[in-house]
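Database export, one record per block. Field names are fixed; values are copied verbatim from the stored entry.
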Amino acid sequence: MTIAAREHWEEHFAAGDGFLGVTAAEMRMFTEQVAPAAGASVLDIGCGLGGYAAELVWLGCRTMATDWAASSVAAVRDRYEGLLPGLTVQRLDFEDDQAVGLLPQAGFDVVTMRLVFAFMRDKEAAAERVRRLLAPGGVWVVTTSLADRLSARRHIGITGKEVAGLLEGWGSGVWYDLEPGGVRCFVLRR
């Protein structure tokens, strides 16, 4: 990501701007498809302003919310300090192998990427990092726009080829749309 792009996101989160809000229907589908056990360990990559991470804590998950943007991490800590100790927040560039290597390997029951995967420069490497972090039987939840559904700003979605790459190497998986013709959620199991 370029320095200009990083500055844009820092300013975006510092201004309190988020993205697509989390809905009750989205969390219901998450619960139905993932069925996290009480106390499940979740890593939320690219947490933005933390709404999704907070919902995961309210479901009973121990959640580590991460983002590379310092303004994002600060906003989540401020907004959700009452969710401690169920929520931890840390700055993490998920594209930095060395930084990701400091996380507990095979230490998470669920890894989530909500509206983040499309922005990963090396999607195959991101998938490999997730595999290393997931415990046996773990679940990777990727919520993303699909480029072929977008008339403009296609860069915020993944292509058909990227979908095929995303699905490779998982024991099983399902997908569902959060709304017809809208954002798609992939639930991939080891």
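Remark 1: The mean pLDDT is 91.
Remark 2: The longest helix spans residues 3-14.
End of record.
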